[in-house]
Amino acid sequence: MKRKIIYAALLAPALMLTSCKEDFIDRPSLSGTTTGNYYNSAEQVRAATSTLYSGLPWRNYESRAQDAIGDVMGGNMFTYTDTEYLNFTVSAASERVGAAWGAFYKIIGYSNVMLKTFEEKKAAGGDASYLDPAIAEAHFIRGMLYFYIARTWGAAPIITDPGATALSGDFNIPRYLQKDVLRFALEELQLAEKNLPESDVPGRVTKYSAKGMMAKLYLYNKDYANAKAKAEEVINSGKYTLVSDYEGMFTKMSMNNNAESLFSIQHQFAQDPWGTGNIKNPDRGAGALRTSEADAWEMYVPSIDMLKEYEFGDLRRKWSVMEQGWTKPTWKPQRANAPVYNAFMANGFKYDTLQPTNDGGSLSPTRANIVKYFAGPGKSFGGEPVLGQNSGNNVVLLRYADILLIYAEAVLGANASTSDTKALDALNQVRRRAGLNPKTSITLDDILHERRVEFAFEGDYWYDIQRQGFAKAKAIIEKQNRGTVTAATYLTNFTQDKMFLPIPAGEIIQDPELGKEPVPYYK
Question: Are the beta carbons of 93 and 509 closer than 8 angstroms?
């Protein structure tokens, strides 16, 4: 705990990277010794806050932990690797638990340092016109992360001034009640909303990013009136729209920071430093698409239950999933010394579950693979540029489709159903893009279905299940087929203690207070 949370903030300056090719990712040191002669221009300050968007500090969450927690636990993915998430037997020693915890508190550490540094600079006469928006960016990231922490672990530590904690020598930091962690997250997002600009360059958060994240938090808290109000502000702004190329949002670099994105982790097409590029590619790609340019080992595949969730004619199925009959004529992967494979792929990629795997066939445990965030077999073979495990696609954490569905659910509220015109329009916009007929009345189950298929493999569905409360969560989980095409599997061990993940064991060893009952943060 002391090292991973407290010192993550103190060491943040030393961990900042040297500049990269793109200005948005350039990041200077945040060392206190430079405060007096640095951060004297908007460019210098924005170069510093760009760190908060970079894939580097987010890497240990978005690479596998996001999948294991959001989609394997949620029943959307099958895996032979993270079986403890599939079976709800997650221990405090789990690698994914530690990775997500470490990533979240590391980025919070960055935010803490920036807030303190920029506030001190402002107090010393620095220009508020560019310091205030930078402070607001840090508040947004800190608020968003505490929202993620509250949903993942429930009760958790809140760290805002690691320097003061280190100087005090008291590292016995308790867990705070989940409702207080959520309140703190909301207050951070409110501060962000106040000082973020109405608009900015693509990729930077704005007032509407904060409003959208607040709407999501309000919905989690079942504060339907505020969720509706904030979602409506985003909708009425006219700044966002659903993009027509759903698949391209996740697979094409040219669509990074598109008109649907409210917040995305920013990636560069590079291998070094590790995490600069998007490294989801190999974990999702069909092994038949592995080439000299692109790795693909299909660690995570669509679950049987997820495949059954799609309605007939839902275009999101082919935009999200590869299965028998799925084709990509522009992809023409080739391999050295593989004449049968090369002949099979010569006229374009065909997903085939009958062809031998060495000759280009695909035989995953569920007979399907994931399209989202798989960039293809490499540029030389008709796909997007790929360097081994790395692509240049951003990872989207909040998009306009979410705002529309939040609005529809907020209008529904605690009612059994609604035929409200605006709520129906919001949900039917999402359905129309998917090629589906509009609904004339909607229930909560309708909305949860729509959320599941719309955000499949984006790390969100577990939280949608969790926020239903234990009884409904148990009913949802125990109905899911979590097995393979040859062995259906249904869980019977879902208990109340499975609703949140355990705090990493190493953290409790260093700070025994984390193993105790949570306490109030607000007095």
Answer: no
